[in-house]
Amino acid sequence: MRILFAGTPQVAVASLNHLHAAGFDIAAVLTRPDAPLGRKRVLTPSPVAARAEELGLPLIKSSKITDDVTEQLQALNLDAAAIVAFGGLVPQAALSVPRHGWINLHFSLLPNWRGAAPVQHSIIHGDDITGAVTFQLETGLDTGPVFGQVTEVVNELDTAGVMLERLSESGSMLLVQTLQALDAGRAVAVPQTGSHTYAPKITDVDAQLDFSRPATEIRRRAHGTTPFPGAWSAVGEQRYKFGPLRERRDVTDLASGELRIVPGKQPTVLIGTATWALEPTQIQPPGKKMMNASDWARGMLAQGTEVSFA
């Protein structure tokens, strides 16, 4: 089966690897152009572009699927196109190029969480189960019929980054199975039914923690915005970022935003909320790297410094 692979970020690399290992004839890889990264703003290939180069696959780099790109695709004699987090819309003219159309791997259980940040919103809104689906791409936003799905349990300490890593693996195997079934004439796509929800792009504002809210709500917001853009709270003009948070239902005597450091060989950090305390596992103080919360607490105790997130 001759296919195009379209994708850009790290979460799409597993799918490219599995499709290549499964023996698909990957005619080309479509990805977004090199982007400036780091303090020096060095132009850097996307993770998918870097992996495609390692595999010796032809590359098409474009931020949009233009008429010129569509002409390039028409010349490839494609049976299907597999798309995973490409980062751009596919116009109707391009959708009709492959014989079997475009098969999208989307990291949610459609029709829930259509859009750019499904896993993040799934965690923020407290879903116990999330997953990934393969579906026939249409011009509508994630509206096409579904071929198959995989599910994953969301554990208390799972962040969006952790869930996406797991789903990128299980989802990539689903994508391989879907394309194999399509090639064999066995694939059946079922229309989406029921109500739907949307998952717009996550912003820095979404990642701000308000410790006057209930602990479970704060934990979900923190985990849904980790690692990007990163959960944070301000102390004056300074920002503190947080890694995963544990709920401490046994600690209810702290005011909202009040910080307590429990001394010991591995000091514990506790922050009060509207319900019970939260225990950060990692903290990034202003101007420093993310560190274990116990190491930060040890330094705070040595300095005799006090901080409040109220």
Description:
The chain has eight helices and 17 strands. The chain has 310 residues and is of the alpha/beta class. The strands form five sheets. The protein has a seven-stranded mixed β-sheet with strand order 5-2-1-6-7-8-9. Strands 10-11-16-17 form a four-stranded antiparallel β-sheet. Strands 3-4 form a two-stranded antiparallel ribbon. The N and C termini lie far apart (59 Å). Residues 1-179 form the Formyl transferase N-terminal domain. It comes from Glutamicibacter protophormiae (Brevibacterium protophormiae).
Backbone structural class = alpha/beta
| Global outline | elongated
For the CA atoms, what is the radius of gyration?
22 Å
Largest sheet: 7 strands, mixed
Biggest sheet: strand arrangement: 5-2-1-6-7-8-9
Q: Cα distance, first to last residue?
A: 59 Å
Strand content: 25-35%
Mean pLDDT: 96
Number of strands: 17
H and E order = EHEEEHEHEHEHEEHHEEEEEEEEH
Keywords: Protein biosynthesis, Transferase
InterPro entries: Fmt (IPR005794), Formyl_trans_C (IPR005793), Formyl_transf_N (IPR002376), Formyl_transf_N_sf (IPR036477), Formyl_transferase-like_C_sf (IPR011034), Met-tRNA-FMT_C (IPR044135), Met-tRNA-FMT_N (IPR041711)
Binding site for (6S)-5,6,7,8-tetrahydrofolate: 108-111
GO molecular function: methionyl-tRNA formyltransferase activity
Descriptive keywords:
310 residues, 8 helices, 26% helix, elongated
Question: Would you summarize the structure shown here?
Answer:
The chain has 310 residues and is an alpha/beta fold.
